[in-house]
Amino acid sequence: MNASRLAAIGLVAAAGLWIASGHFLPHQTAESRAGLPAPEGEAKKPFRVAVAMTNVIPHSRKLTIAGRTEADKRVTVTARTGGVLTDLKVKRGMSVQKGEIIAVLSDEAREAQVAQAQAVVTQKRTELEAKRTLILSGTLPRLQLVDLEAQLKSAEAALAVARAEQDRGVVRAPWSAVVHDVAVEVGQAAFSMAGREIASLVALDPMLAVVEVAERQLAGIKVDAVAEVRLVTGERANGKIRFVAKTASPTTRTYRVEVELPNADGKIPDGITAEVVVPLAPVLATRVPRSAVTFSSAGDLGLRVVDANDVVEFTPVGVIEDEQSYMWWPMSRSRRKRSRTSGFRSSTCSSPNAASARKIPSGCCCGRSRPSSNPSAT
Questions:
Q1: Fold exhibited by the domain 106-170
Q2: What's the number of CA atoms in the CB half-sphere (13 Å) around residue 316?
Q3: pLDDT of 349 above 80
Q4: What kind of architecture, by CATH, is found in domain 64-72+201-281?
Q5: Distances (CA, A) of 200 to 175, 178, 265, 282, 363
Q6: How far is Cα 10 from Cα 268, in angstroms, rounded to an integer?
Q7: Distant-in-sequence, close-in-space partners of 115: CB < 8 Å, separation ≥ 6
Q8: Fewer C-beta neighbours within 10 Å, C or N terminus of the chain?
Q9: Bigger pLDDT: 115 or 344?
Q10: Residue pLDDT, tens place only, 134-153
Q11: What is the pLDDT of residues 192-205, one digit of tens each?
């Protein structure tokens, strides 16, 4: 038992000595001392930094949205009457003009019906002209004149119906377009042809560029505004915004926007991937390199600027446009008055005392400076 007690006491004493050694014996290395903050007297010593000037100008923002092209009009042409398809005048990919014949159905006695109706009209008109004089002279009752005129109008109406039925046997293009697909062949069935699809037409002029815009970006998009469309093929075209939806899609909560593009030569195809660049209202902004962006101790993204007293201060801002090597940052008028410079550049400070020299974080834009009392600017 005595040996066990002595061993326990020895362990406790060893642990106490080890803990005490951390307070009395030096244990810092050169690397650990370099990581400690500078003494208070040195931290307040002014030092020099570089300043780069840029201009705060009204910058026209651009909203770039991915979308696709879409034909302005498309229709499926169908037969409106029965008969056998006797003539098909179009092929897939052909261009047709408004009113041009696409297909012809068999006559099915429609021409004979027109001739019969025409003969009845001639008969009724002759009877009316022959008896009009007798009726006006009082030889025949005047009521007979009204009856003869009604018979003539009825015959003319029957003639119009027969001619309309004859015209249904000829299928025409409703407007100028390109034939997208042909669904029938010559000689196809007679009785099922009514309502049968003949061909699909697509109008390529004008062409639409369609995008879906998020609700936060909708405010800057106006009808009749000019927009640039960049196709995936490398071609570019300019058009006008003709439609901005007032109701959001129930699935994506986005709004449909259509840009109308002139396409008389048909070079812009339907359904191709495109980017629509919409100019927004200009705002005061400055163009800074990406290397000038920094974070404050609180984690806010922004830049360091110089105030009216030559003191560096951190300014949290937001990006309004992002380029490959530069960013555009908004600058309010109050912030512009508070700052001596509107320029931004990553810089490193220099000091005669090498021990007290320290680097300003990337994004510093200041002149001769002394540390700020703002903890976010350290």
A1: Helix Hairpins (1.10.287)
A2: 8
A3: no
A4: Beta Barrel (2.40)
A5: 12, 9, 20, 45, 59
A6: 91
A7: none
A8: N
A9: 115
A10: 877 777 787 888 888 898 89
A11: 567 788 899 999 88
